[in-house]
């Protein structure tokens, strides 16, 4: 289940051009709950999303991860985790309550992470509209709206 960040798309495009092998083919977004509930649970997904969010804090983590924190979406993610307690975010790899974030790259080497850091230094802070929540599912052809 995603919250789209359309005004962050130019940032993601810059990163995609600099590090094409490390950026997923999804639009700029925050995963509010992954894995998410099935689309049939749409009636149970009533979560308030802010109209805008501010992206200002770069994140760099394990396994070649770089992203940007989106703290304004943490409350929405917490509501969804409480509503669907059997869905453990990311299978528990990042704890029970991972921070809401825009992922830029995963699996990148240190040189690529440094390049992404330079792009972020130039691009942040950034304000984006928020759209969603959007249900998506992984298929053999990649991620698709559900």
From TrEMBL:
What is this protein called in UniProt? 2'-5' RNA ligase family protein
Q: Which organism is it from?
A: Amycolatopsis acidicola
Alphabetized, the UniProt keywords read: Ligase
A GO molecular-function descriptor: ligase activity
| Highest taxon in the source lineage | Bacteria
């Amino acid at each position: 289940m995603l919250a789209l960040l359309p005004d962050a798309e130019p940032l993601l495009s810059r990163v995609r051009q600099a590090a094409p092998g490390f950026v997923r083919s999804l639009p700029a977004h925050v995963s509010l709950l992954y894995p998410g509930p099935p689309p049939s649970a749409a009636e149970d997904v009533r979560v308030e999303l802010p109209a805008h969010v501010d992206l200002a804090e770069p994140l760099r983590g394990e396994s070649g991860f770089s992203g940007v924190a989106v703290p304004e979406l943490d409350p929405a993610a917490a509501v969804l985790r409480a509503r669907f307690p059997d869905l453990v975010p990311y299978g528990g790899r990042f704890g029970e309550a991972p921070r809401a974030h825009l992922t830029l790259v995963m699996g990148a080497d240190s040189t690529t992470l440094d390049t992404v850091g330079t792009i972020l230094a130039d691009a942040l802070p950034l304000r984006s509209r928020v759209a969603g929540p959007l249900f998506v599912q992984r298929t053999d052809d990649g991620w698709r709206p559900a």
